[in-house]
Amino acid sequence: MKFAIIAAGQGSRLVAEGVGVSKPLLRIHGEMMIERLFRIFLENDAESISVITNEEMTDVHRFLKQVKLPVPLNVVIKTTPDSLHSFYELSPFLQGGKFCLTTVDTIFTEKEFSSYIRAFKEDNENDALMPVTDYIDDEKPLYVKTDSDLHITGFFDEATPGIRYVSGGIYGLNGQALALFRQAMTEGLSRMRNFQRLMIGSGLRVKAYPFSKIIDVDHESDIRKAEDLLV
């Protein structure tokens, strides 16, 4: 399976709090976040890994230049307006089957991720299998409404009664979902969460996969939370 990482955000809140390296190079238990994802993807049989980073993070460029992986590493250096456009820049490398895309600051346990990837590989019924969590600690979470079988029926900006989960920032998609995405981009789609809504509105089969906890590292205080999760 192909894997991809969006590592294109500025990490402005971390910089404002005095963190001195670009977000992808931030260490959790001594391991850089981007390096950790490379390792976990390879342990889950990645056939290729694609990364996008912005033009300003020269420390990340230097790191990526010296990385040696046993599978193809595709690197895009481009500043984009948002994660949706970053995904679009990566999409040519993700054609031909299922793939998993994640943001660089998404922290999860390796055991849960491996179980998820195994379930995603074996799932022949759905066009997307989306990790969700009932641990809500994000500034602007995307709430995920599901039915009793965990099929996703809607994505919402606000919490409403009966919604248990939020999106985890990990996307498992097949070729049909990718084709819809590329078509929608040509029609002026904006924001990743609007693509998720479009999948539901277009009749794609989208299912939730619960994780116990997923942490986004947006603030310095999140580093400790991430390290506590991975103890």
Helices and strands in order, then pairings?
Elements: E1 2-7, H1 12-16, E2 27-28, E3 31-32, H2 33-43, E4 48-53, H3 58-66, E5 73-77, H4 83-90, E6 99-103, E7 106-107, H5 110-122, E8 128-133, E9 143-146, E10 152-156, E11 165-167, E12 170-173, H6 175-186, H7 192-201, E13 206-211, E14 215-216, H8 220-229
Parallel strand pairs: 1-4, 1-6, 4-5, 8-13
Antiparallel strand pairs: 2-3, 6-12, 7-14, 8-11, 8-12, 9-10, 9-11
GO molecular function, one term: nucleotidyltransferase activity
Domain MobA-like NTP transferase: 4-137
InterPro entries: GlmU-like, MobA-like_NTP_Trfase, Nucleotide-diphossugar_trans
Q: Which fold name corresponds to the CATH topology?
A: Spore Coat Polysaccharide Biosynthesis Protein SpsA, Chain A
- Class based on secondary structure composition and strand pairing: alpha/beta
The tally of beta strands, per DSSP, is 14
CATH homologous superfamily (4th level) name? Spore Coat Polysaccharide Biosynthesis Protein SpsA, Chain A
For the CA atoms, what is the radius of gyration?
17 Å
Portion in beta strands: 25-35%
Compressed to H and E, one letter per element, the order equals: EHEEHEHEHEEHEEEEEHHEEH
List segments where confidence is low: pLDDT < 50 over at least 5 consecutive residues: none
Q: Into how many domains do the coordinates divide?
A: 1
The level of helicity is 25-40%
Please state the overall shape, judged from the principal axes of the Cα atoms: globular
